[in-house]
Design goal:
By secondary structure, the chain is of the alpha+beta class. It has helices at about 40-50, 50-55, 85-90, 95-100, 135-145, 150-155, 180-185, 190-200, and strands at about 30-35, 60-65, 70-80, 105-115, 125-135, 160-165, 170-175, 200-210. It has 2 domains: about 25-115, Alpha-Beta Plaits (2-Layer Sandwich), CATH 3.30.70; about 125-210, Alpha-Beta Plaits (2-Layer Sandwich).
C-alpha cells in the first residue's frame, strides 16, 4: 500500500495486531484487515451490510480506519472473545466472498493479536500505527513505558500496545492525536527514532497514519 506514511519496510510474513475497536479487546483477540478498495463508498455499503454476519461469527466490536493520504486505503479491526473465533472468521468463505463483492483490490493483509495492559485508545482522534519487531518484549516495554511522558508532551492522547498471537516480540502500537500535524511530527521526530533504537527495535518499523471513519 503505497499511500501510507511508511518509514522503512518491515517485512513480516503473517502476524501482527492493531488498533482496538473498544475496551473489549483487552479480554480477547484482535483481527486486523488492511487492504485497498476500488471505491470507499461502495465498499462501506457492502461492509455495513455484512455486519450481521460478523456478529454471528463472533465479532464483538469493530472499527474502520482510512489512510490520511488515500481514503481507499482501509484498515479494519475486529474484536473476538477468542483467537480461535478470529482465525475462523479470517479463513471463512463468507469473508472472502464479502471482500470480493465489495471491491477489495488484490489480496488483503490479515493479522491476529492480543492486547497487553495499557490500552487506552480514543477512536475519535487521528490514529498513528507503528508496527515493528523487537529483540525482547520485556526490555522494549520498559523503555516504551519510560517514553510515555514524552509521548504526552508531543500530543499523544491515547495509546495501545499489541503483541502478535504467534510471536510476542512482534509488536504493533497505536497512538491517538487530535490532529494529523501532531501525528506526522511525532512519527518523524528524532525523539521517537532514538527511543526505538534504545528499546531494541529490529530493522525499520512500518508507520501509517489513519483516521477512524464515521461512515
Amino acid at each position: 500500500m503505497r499511500t501510507f506514511l511508511i518509514i522503512g519496510a518491515l517485512a513480516l510474513a503473517s502476524f501482527a495486531v492493531a488498533e482496538p475497536a473498544s475496551a473489549a479487546s483487552a479480554a480477547g483477540a484482535e483481527l486486523l484487515v488492511r487492504h485497498e478498495v476500488n471505491d470507499y463508498g461502495a465498499w462501506r455499503k457492502a461492509y455495513d451490510a455484512f455486519r450481521p454476519t460478523q456478529k454471528q461469527m463472533g465479532v464483538t466490536a469493530q472499527a474502520v480506519y482510512q489512510a490520511m493520504d488515500n481514503p481507499n486505503d482501509v484498515t479494519v479491526t475486529h474484536d473476538f472473545k477468542t483467537e480461535a473465533e478470529a482465525r475462523a472468521f479470517a479463513g471463512s468463505d463468507k469473508l472472502k466472498t464479502a471482500m470480493k463483492n465489495s471491491g477489495v483490490k488484490g489480496p488483503p493483509q490479515l493479522w491476529f493479536g492480543k492486547v497487553t495492559p495499557g490500552a487506552s485508545s480514543k477512536a475519535e482522534h487521528v490514529c498513528l500505527f507503528v508496527r515493528h519487531e523487537v529483540n525482547d518484549y520485556a526490555t522494549w516495554r520498559k523503555a516504551y513505558d519510560a517514553f510515555r511522558p514524552t509521548q504526552k508532551q508531543m500530543g499523544v492522547t491515547g495509546q495501545a500496545v499489541y503483541q502478535s498471537a504467534d510471536n510476542p516480540n512482534e509488536v504493533t502500537v497505536t497512538h491517538d492525536f487530535k490532529t494529523e500535524t501532531e501525528a506526522r511530527a511525532f512519527a518523524t521526530s528524532e525523539k521517537l527514532k532514538n527511543a526505538m533504537q534504545n528499546a531494541g527495535v529490529k530493522g525499520a518499523p512500518q508507520v501509517w497514519i489513519t483516521i477512524r471513519a464515521a461512515k
